[in-house]
Specification:
The protein is α+β, with helices and mostly antiparallel strands. The protein contains 14 helices and 17 strands.
């Protein structure tokens, strides 16, 4: 199969030239032969017409012998065979043969045509003289109808020789013209294909990275326009590559200057990009081409990577210990490129400060618990011995002492929950029984405040694995808050199943929480209404405790609130938190 443009063009021209050459030869040969036969036929008709005055009297008088001598004398002189045939097809005279020995000519084509009233002529091989001949016949008129036929014939041997020589000359001329045309087609195809070859070679050099290549075509027309467009494209590519190179250098500089460790790897886990900070973190300077699990040998890190890739999540953050330091591991998955990006941020100092703050809170809480216990004991003793105005002051001291004790207690509880080593005492918990037990604690307070206590339990509630004490502690905090901040109306606790989880809703018709505070209510010591919280004895730690208990159970907590209409806290817990 021809692939080059030159080969295709040349072969196309070759086929066209051959086709038209053969067509020209065929048409010219046939046209010339037909024209020559027509001329000879016309000449023979004129000759036969000229012979009729001499032949007709003898034929009509029945003088066959004299007629035969006449045609034998005339035939050689005019180099033409003359035959006289009567209406029955019997040969009366012939210039070449003895008429008595000749067969009946009644059904010869030219004889039949004349007897039927048409001009007669035909070309055929004569069995009498063993040569191809041209026959022309004219009628010999009688008194009423055609009395006979005068036929003249011409040997075609000489004509065929002349025609063969002429055909040979025409063939040689056609071959010569075809060769000239092919030579012209060769140069034309080469001239057309040369710019294409130059463009193709320049494209290969461009693909190999040679951006200095240019195409120079002097021919005017579309090819020169194409070459100019190609050169313009190379200039634009040079500009584009220069911009990309600048952007790449800028990006490389930015990545290198990032203090956080950055690593990118493909779907197979092979590292494709990393910065100097990451090399320092893993204490390895040659990472390109390695697999990430060869560099970071932490099972939890590998689990996080696989989890992100399997779930195709866009972002996941978790703390990881690495080389006596703590890092915040941020993992992003790029689905369009099937690559994973990991950023390690060193939070060791921050964790150290956080640890110090926690230790400080725990130590202070422990240190405060003893004097507060003593103060509370003395206050209780004083309360029994004083009266009048002094008793009012003792009650104030007692109330604030109780608040301090509660704060210390909640701080210790929260510190315990924040410890990573905190273990849940998991057991089978029946949520319905848990709610009934909690209801008994709050029914007196509900009645005392005039609130309606409702609880709705969906049928077929399954038991869950949970820490019964901590779960009860979380629900008590939520219900306690609902009672504190609801002056009238209802407090509702509902329980239902949802997609393999237990959903517990604590709703009230209280004062609600403004929208701008909803994002911070789970922070420690954060209170919406400080004056109200102090008056009600709140510590600002209850919701933080609730959130940590839910997180320990691998659950979630959400809040929906409308000011002056109430608040709903929703806890969603898995049936099995492990």
């Amino acid at each position: 199969m021809i692939k080059s443009l030159f080969g295709k063009l040349f072969c196309a021209y070759l086929l066209i030239i051959l086709f038209f050459s053969l067509l020209m030869l065929s048409v010219s040969f046939n046209s010339f032969r037909a024209y020559s036969i027509t001329i000879h036929t016309h000449d023979l008709q004129n000759l036969a017409t000229a012979l009729l005055p001499q032949v007709t009297p003898l034929f009509l008088e029945g003088k066959g012998k004299e007629l035969d001598r006449l045609v034998k004398g005339l035939g050689p002189g005019i180099n033409t065979r003359i035959t006289i045939v009567n209406s029955d097809g019997v040969v009366v005279a012939d210039s070449e043969k003895d008429p008595d020995g000749m067969e009946n000519h009644r059904f010869r084509p030219e004889i039949l045509q004349v007897l039927e009233g048409e001009p007669g002529s035909s070309i055929r091989f004569s069995s009498t003289v063993n040569e191809e001949m041209l026959y022309v016949a004219v009628p010999i008129p009688g008194r009423e109808k055609t009395a006979g036929v005068l036929r003249v014939s011409l040997f075609l041997a000489d004509f065929n020789k002349l025609f063969s020589r002429l055909k040979q000359s025409i063939l040689y001329s056609a071959i010569g013209l075809s060769l000239i045309a092919l030579l012209a087609a060769f140069f034309f195809s080469r001239n057309v294909a040369r710019p294409v070859r130059e463009l193709s070679a320049a494209s290969r050099r461009l693909a190999a990275g040679d951006f200095t290549t240019r195409v120079l075509i002097r021919d005017a027309g579309e090819m020169q326009d194409l070459a100019n467009s190609f050169n313009y494209m190379i200039d634009e590519i040079n500009k584009l590559f220069a911009r990309l190179s600048d952007q790449s250098d800028q990006l490389r500089s930015i990545i290198s200057s990032i203090q956080e460790g950055l690593i990118v790897f493909d779907p197979r886990g092979k590292i494709t990009l990393c910065n100097e900070s990451f090399k320092k973190i893993v204490q390895n300077s040659s990472l390109e081409g390695k697999f990430y699990w060869e560099v970071v040998r932490i099972p939890r890190f590998n689990e996080l990577i696989k989890k992100v890739q399997e779930d195709a999540v866009s972002y996941r953050v978790e703390e990881l210990p690495l080389h006596d330091a703590t890092f915040l591991c941020s993992i992003s998955y790029l689905p369009e490129r099937e690559e994973t990006v990991v950023i390690l941020s060193d939070i060791t100092a921050m964790k150290r400060v956080e640890r110090m703050k926690k230790d400080f809170v725990v130590n202070v809480s422990h240190e405060l618990r003893t004097p507060l216990t003593a103060i509370k004991g003395f206050v209780d003793t004083l309360e029994e011995t004083v009266d009048g105005t002094n008793k009012h002051y003792v009650e104030i001291i007692k109330r604030h002492t109780d608040r301090l004790v509660n704060i210390v207690k909640d701080l210790l509880t929260l510190s315990e929950l924040e410890e990573r080593e905190t273990m849940l005492k998991l057991e089978e918990v029946n949520p319905e029984e848990l709610i009934r037990r909690i209801s008994l604690l709050f029914e007196p307070r509900m009645r005392e405040k005039g609130l309606v206590w409702k609880w709705n339990i969906a049928p077929n509630i399954s038991s869950i694995k949970a820490d019964s004490f901590k779960l009860e502690q979380a629900l008590i905090n939520l219900i306690d808050n609902a009672i504190k901040y609801t002056e009238r109306g209802t407090v509702t606790l509902s329980l239902k199943n949802r997609n393999g989880h237990i959903v517990i809703d604590v709703s009230d018709t209280g004062i609600g929480i403004p929208e701008e505070h909803l994002s911070r209510i789970f922070e420690r010591f954060y209170v919406v209404d400080k004056s109200r919280s102090k008056r009600l004895g709140g510590t600002g730690l209850g919701l933080s405790i609730v959130k940590h208990i839910v997180i320990l159970h691998n659950g979630t907590i959400d809040v929906h609130s409308t000011p002056s209409h109430g608040t709903t806290f929703s806890i969603c817990l898995p049936v099995n938190p492990v």
